[in-house]
Amino acid sequence: MAGIPPKPWPTGKAMQLEPLVRRVLAPNPSPYTFTGTQTYIVGLGDGCAVIDPGPDEKEHLLALDAAIGEEHVCAIMCTHTHRDHSPAAKTLAARTGAAIVGCAPLVIDSNLPRSDEAFDPTYEPDRVMEDGERMTGPGWTLTAVATPGHVSNHLCFALEESGALFTGDHVMGWSTSVVIPPDGDMGDYMKSLDKLYAREDRVFYPAHGEAVEKPRQLVRGMIGHRRQRENQIVRHLAEGPHEAADFVPKMYKGLDPKLHKAAEMSVTAHLIDLEQRGLVARSGDVWQTI
């Protein structure tokens, strides 16, 4: 996980990335959101779509109003329902009259510790998009690409006119995605990475961090990294039974203690995947090879 770059950041400014795409950075930086959530506006004058409207914060909504101007908002589209991505959808829909479309609603009530954002209970889509479904507007077409793993309802959106893919939290240039059980699923996440690797997108626009100009190269590296972590877990289990927390100091040397819980959750996701594949077993909190 990369460190957050020094300020100033372009918070609140509409950045033109390509003819059909603008980006507005929300004021919600953190160790898990990098410099903040990036909202994308797709369209060129006659009508636009807003992707991942972000947190329901006055400063960010005013920045979106300024970026959109008098343009008609055709749709508000959400990749998933973590609270740094979808809460502004409801307010923006009330202001613009646009439909909320994209991922399915999902709220997880759990007393398990989390190291990412909690889920947004206010999200109410007018239309849930399935894999391959399209949303169209003046001069643009966005196709839903189902990518469960980070969370079960995660979608990416492919801009057919330019070869760009809006990847939400599934693929980010600054960090690997956090996969936290019970809703985060490492097996699904790996399948979704394979799915993106098989595509030929020109560029990835993630919700956090800069654009990814060599997407297949990055995805290949991410797949290799996850397989390396899996192999580390199997090697340590060959030494004897472990609890999930036991792996962290062995596998994440020098990691900031604030990030230990995230690392433990990632290990747990790998262990559950290995269990489902019949390679490890658990008794209570203790894991061992079969």
TrEMBL record:
Molecular functions per Gene Ontology: hydrolase activity
Keywords of this entry: Hydrolase
Signal sequence region: none
Alphabetized InterPro entries for the sequence: LACTB2_WH, Metallo-B-lactamas, RibonucZ/Hydroxyglut_hydro, Sec-metab_biosynth-thioest, WH-like_DNA-bd_sf
Superkingdom of the source species: Bacteria
SUPFAM superfamilies listed in its UniProt record: Metallo-hydrolase/oxidoreductase
Residue span, Metallo-beta-lactamase domain: 36-208
Gene3D superfamilies per record: Ribonuclease Z/Hydroxyacylglutathione hydrolase-like, Winged helix-like DNA-binding domain superfamily/Winged helix DNA-binding domain
Any Pfam family the entry gives: Lactamase_B
Protein name: MBL fold metallo-hydrolase
